[in-house]
Amino acid sequence: MNAVDTYITADGRTIGAPLMEMKNITLRFGGVTAIQDISFDIREGEVRAIIGPNGAGKSSMLNVINGFYHPQEGEVWFRGKKRLAMKPHQIAKQGIARTFQNIALFKGMSTLDNIMTGRLTHMKSGLFSQMAWWGGAQTEEVANRAIVEKVIDFLEIQAIRKTPVGRLPYGFQKRVELGRALAAEPKLLLLDEPMAGMNVEEKEDMSRFILDVNDEFGTTIALIEHDMGVVMDIADRVVVMDYGKKIGDGTPDEVRNNQDVIDAYLGVAHD
Amino acid sequence: MSANFYYGIEVFLNGMMAGVLYSLVALGFVLIFKASGIFNYAQGVMALFAALTLVGFQNGQIPFSHLINAVFGTNIHHFGWHMPAILAIILTLLVMILFAYLVEKYVLKHLVNQEPIILFMATIGLAYFMEGFGDLMWGADIKKLDVGLPQGGNVWLEEHTAFLGGPDFYGFYLDNLDMWATVFAGLLVVSLVLFSQYTKTGRALRAVADDHQAALSVGISLRAIWVIVWSIAGFVALVAGIMWGSKSGVQFSLSLIALKALPVLMLGGFTSIPGAIVGGLIIGVGEKMFEFLIGVPYLGGATENWFAYMLALLFLVFRPQGLFGEKIIERV
Asked: Which among A88, A120, A125 has the least Cβ separation from residue B204?
C-alpha cells in the first residue's frame, strides 16, 4: 500500500501523498533505546493512529515529530523535504500543532486567551505596533479573534469563553487544548491520548470532533490512543509499537489480525 | 477637627507615595519571576546601573574614562556636551535592552532547566558584576540626577489646604517629586497591564509564565520572550532609578532599595502585578502610620526601619503565598 501515491478509505475518502515521513528513526536516552529504527508515513488527509502497550515509545515518537526530541539516527521528511534540526517553536510555525497527554494549558488564562495563543504563528505585527495598539496590531487582533470564535463555536464551548481554564472540568480542558491546536490551522495535528481519562459520553464527543476536523478542514491527524475500540473506529491506518520497535502497520483490520500485535497485547508464552 | 488629624492624613498621603516607589521596584521582580521563575537579585543593581548610565549620558561622561586614563596615561573625562534628558533616557533604555539581550545570551541560555536556586545564584553573580561594571564605566562618586522633574514641596497645595486644621496646621506638605513618581508609576502599571492583556506578545508572556512546553508547542520562542521580559524589567528599573536617584542621588545605596521590595513581594505575592502595587502601598502607608501613631509616641521612633520586615514575617507565618499570589498546592 505504501508504494501507491493515493488510496481510498473504507468510507470513501481519497487519501493523498505522504505529508510526513519518518525514515529509520532511532532515539536513545543514554543507554535506553526509546525508539529503534522505525519508519512510517502520515499521508495527507488521513487519520493515523499510533498504538502500543505502555512504554512502547509512542509519546517519544510524537515528541520527535514536533521537535521536543531529536533522534540520533534517521530522517524526518515533511512536505517532501528533509527537515533539519529545528527548535519546537520553529516546527510549530511550519504547521504542526499538538495536544499533550497530561493537558498543558495556560491555567491562569481564559479559554479565549488560551485559544488565541494558537493564533500566534499567524500574527505578524511588530512589538512597537502592539505597544502603541495602532496600525497592524489592532486589525490583526480583530481578524484572529474572529477565527478563534469559529473554533469556539465548532467545539461548542461558547459558555466557558471567559472562564480561566484552571477551573474547568477535565473534559472541557481537553476540548480547549484541542481548540488551541485547531486555531493554528495546522497541516498536521498531533493528539497525545485525546481521550485518556474520559467517560464513554465524553469519548464519543471527542471522537466526533476529531472526525469532523478531519472531514471539514481536511486536517491530517496523527493520534496516540489506548482505547482500542476508538482507534479501530476512527483511524484509517494504524502503526503498532512495542518496546520501541514497530510490530505492525496497516488498516485497523490488518492490524487486528496481525499475530505480533495480538502477542504484544495479550502476552505470549516465552519458550 | 484637630491639627493632628490632618497631620495624620498628610502622613498617610506621604506613605502612599513612598509605597508607590516600593511598588516600582517590586514590579521589576514580579515581571521576571512570573515569566521565568527566577528571583532576580540583580533588580536593585539594575536600577542603580540604569541611573548611573542616565547621568553619564546626560553629563557627557566618557565611559571607562578612569580605565582609559590609567592604561594610556591620558586625562579625559567628558565629551564636553550636555545631553537633553529625554534623549539620555532613550539611550539608557537602549542600553538596558542590550543588557537584557546579553543576559539571555550569556547567562540564561546556558541555565535552562536548572534548579531555581542555581538561577538565583546566577543573578547574585550578575548583581556583583553589574555593580563593579557600573563603577568601572561611570566612576564610583555620588552623582546628582536631574531630569527636569520639579523638586521640593508643593507650595500651592500647602497654601490651599492650610485653612483645614485651624491655627496649628500649615497645610499638607507633599513632595513634588513624589507626586510625579506616583503619576509615572500609575501610568507604567496601567500600560503594563493593558499590554499583557490585549496584545499577542503580552499573551505570549503570560503563556510562558504558565507552561514552557505548551508555549513552545504553539510556536513561542522562549528566548525571545526572556529578552522582552528582561527589557521590560530594565525599563522598570530605569524608572525606579530615575525616581529614587532624583530623590537621594545616584550612589551605591540605590541598589539597596531592592531590600525594601522584598517585604512588598511577601505581602503581594511573587506572581501578581496588582499584588506588587497593593503590597507597596500597604508597606508604605503602614510604616509611616505606624511610626506616626505608635512608633513616636510609645516606642521612641525609628520603627520605619523594621516595620516592613516585621509585617512580612507575619505574612510568611499566616499567609505564605501573599495577598494575591497563587496558592501553593502540591499535587502528587
From this structure: A120
